[in-house]
Design goal:
Layout (H helix, E strand, L loop, with lengths): L1 H12 L4 H5 L14 H6 L1 E5 L4 H4 L2 E2 L2 E2 L16 H4 L4 H5 L12 H10 L4 E7 L26 H11 L2 E6 L21 H23 L3 E4 L10 H14 L4 E2 L15 E2 L14 E5 L17 H13 L2 E7 L9 H17 L7 E2 L8 E8 L2 E8 L5 E4 L7 E3 L5 E2 L1 E4 L2 E5 L11 E5 L1
The protein binds ligand FHN.
Ligand FHN binds next to loops.
Length: 443
């Protein structure tokens, strides 16, 4: 490992020409907006946090996250275990000799995502720990150095293509705890900017280039948040320019520079598990956890019920946003059983109600808490969809519904009447048979 660090430092010195090598030719920072349409229609995607941290499952040396014995230990995020529980570098980076996901079956992962109704998948190609899930030409801290050896991304990409899912990569362009010049958590001394520049030119930009050239992703998911030191507008635009010069389809998320994404990103990324209550002027999505942690955490039993996650999906759909729901695979490559059950439950609901979600757009109607609406033009004409997340006796739509309403799942007709330009829909209690969301289709 020390040899690796020494080589990296040497490369850093020799990297005077790198800036030029990574800098693309003159290229527009804006992507053709039509390339974002698939994302707007997709609504539901799978996020995956997987890497060396998955081996530790949120515990190290008798301590389990969150653990306030450590000044920064009060978090469930198991992918943060290294700095949060002060795992020594040698120990953590040595996990590379243990990572051996022999039960990895990307075909089954993508099948679960597809059956859940998800239309795209985003995996952590490299998270903050610096470890790459592919055989990187730029760094030896990668899958090729593990006992497993084989690239994990190519077969996942193949499975996504086979099942018709778009695919993208989370790439930690800023934080890199293995690289001697990468950004570190805020409680560490800040790197001198000229050191960060070495990391930027030697690893960050070249790995992004590699990901595009090797795997041709549909989107790149960059990650910064409140204290994004080093990611200046110049670096943000340099990275955007690089992506645009290599791909005419690859979408870029707003977390490339959370506090100042500029005008050239393709969609906004909300804070973790944050659900806006109003429309935004760009496509957007919420990255969301099923447990408290993103990476698999063996002691995090805080699994959200499928129905609550469907509410989040419906809330976002009604506001023109997407829902990127995370699954943290175990280190052996299997998906946790509670995650699989929830995916299947959500998929079963979307199987009969997906017409009201996928490809639908917001109506702009202000509705009472817990009631959401979307609209969509189908072969049977223009439809309004109303999502009822709990029993109510009636709903008033601030518009005239000329045809009729029915329960989408069963076709049961529902009484309605138009009064003074509004439509009052009367709901029999019998349609709320269990706690699942009832969808009305009106035309
Ligand atoms: O620090 C990361 C975290 O580990 C996780 O990847 C999330 C996903 O949105 N992003 C950062 C925190 O917001």
């Amino acid at each position: 490992m020390r040899k690796l660090v020494a080589i990296s430092i040497l490369l850093g010195f020799l990297c005077v020409g790198c800036a030029e090598k990574n800098a693309p030719k003159e290229v527009s920072l804006k992507l053709d907006p039509s390339k974002v349409e698939w994302f707007k229609d997709a609504k539901f995607g799978m996020f995956m946090h997987w890497g060396l941290y998955s081996i530790l499952e949120g515990s190290y040396n008798g301590h389990t996250m969150p653990d306030t014995t450590f000044p920064q230990g009060n978090t469930w995020y198991a992918e943060w275990i290294k700095p949060r529980l002060e795992v020594p570098d040698d120990y953590y980076n040595g996990l590379i000799n243990e990572f051996n996901p022999v039960r990895y079956d990307p075909d089954s992962w993508v099948r679960e995502a597809k059956n859940a109704g998800m239309k795209y998948l985003v995996i952590t190609a490299k998270h903050h720990d610096g470890f790459a899930l592919w055989d990187s030409d730029v760094s030896d801290f990668d899958i090729a150095a593990t006992p497993y050896k084989k690239d994990l991304l190519a077969p996942l990409v193949a499975a996504c293509k086979k099942y018709g899912l778009k695919y993208g990569f989370y790439y930690s362009h800023w934080q890199d705890w293995e690289d001697p010049d990468g950004a570190m958590p805020y409680w560490y001394p800040w790197r001198p900017d000229e050191d960060f520049e070495k990391y930027w030119q030697r690893k960050s930009l070249p790995q992004v280039k590699e990901l595009i050239e090797k795997f041709d992703p549909d989107l790149l998911w960059f990650d910064t948040w409140d204290w994004e030191n080093h990611i200046t507008p110049e670096r943000r635009d340099e990275l955007i320019r690089l992506v645009r010069s290599l791909s005419d389809k690859c979408l870029i998320n707003g977390r490339i520079c959370y506090s100042n994404p500029g005008d050239n990103i393709d969609f906004l990324e909300m804070h973790d598990n944050a659900y806006p209550k109003e429309m935004l002027d760009k496509p957007w999505q919420t990255p969301a956890t099923m447990q408290n942690s993103w990476a698999y955490h063996g002691n995090d039993y805080n699994w959200k019920p499928a129905n609550r996650m469907l509410r989040y999906l419906v809330n976002n759909t009604s506001m023109g946003g997407n829902y990127l729901l995370n699954v943290g695979p175990k280190a052996d490559g299997t998906l946790p059983a509670p995650a699989v059950r929830r995916l299947r439950e959500m998929g079963a609901w979307l199987d009969v109600n997906g017409e009201a979600v996928f490809g639908a757009s917001p109506t702009g109607y202000k509705m009472p808490e817990g009631i959401y609406t979307t609209q969509k033009e189908n072969s049977d004409g223009k439809n309004l969809y109303i999502f009822l997340t709990s029993p109510v006796a009636s709903v008033t739509v601030p518009d005239v519904i000329a045809g009729g309403c029915e329960v989408l799942e069963t076709g049961q007709p529902i009484d309605m009447s138009v009064v003074d330009g509004e439509t009052v829909i009367t709901l029999p209690n019998s349609i709320f048979k269990d706690d699942s969301i009832v969808v009305l289709k009106c035309h």
